[in-house]
Amino acid sequence: MVKSILLVGVGGQGTILASKLLTTGLMEAGYDVKMSEIHGMSQRGGSVSSQVRYGDKVESPVIEIGGADILVSFEKMEALRWLKYLKPNGKVVVNDFEINSMPILSGKADYPSDVIGELSSKVQTTAIDAAGKAQELGNSKVMNVILLGTIIKAMGLQSIDWEKIIKDNVKPQFVELNLKAIETGMALV
């Protein structure tokens, strides 16, 4: 059975790093893993998505519309944008975090109101404050690893040696912080 995880966000939020850590952990656990990234205008705060598929044998890295088991959104409007990719019984984990896009900043569009309410009315949604939790840990940059922790818990991947994955892929001075971030994320779902 192949599982599909869709990570979405805005350029600069660490979406790609989180998906690379996830992919590394899944491969070390013996899964066949395929990952696909779409950067878009990520350098300019545009939409970013990363698709991770794993199982015994994965044929394609691409998640089709209606194919994701879980949608993890680093920015809440991105969850709405990518919602059509979720399976009917899929789960959404959404970071209650707002980044205004260019059309909103230039006054050509308004940020939608009650994004989380709209998501919750359509699918099983868990809203978290990863930014606030990252601040509590003392570094806003671990918001992405907190969100990785939510994926680990939601997908039942706690048996993977995440401590090793973090130690192998993070600068030594940030290992403890990132391990706390994973634990924090796992406790939120």
UniProtKB/TrEMBL annotation:
Residues 11-186 form the Pyruvate/ketoisovalerate oxidoreductase catalytic domain. InterPro entries: IorB_Oxidoreductase (IPR052198), Pyrv/ketoisovalerate_OxRed_cat (IPR019752), Pyrv_flavodox_OxRed_cen (IPR002869). SUPFAM superfamilies: Pyruvate-ferredoxin oxidoreductase, PFOR, domain III (SSF53323). Transmembrane segments: none annotated. Keywords: Oxidoreductase. It holds the Pfam family POR. This is Indolepyruvate oxidoreductase.
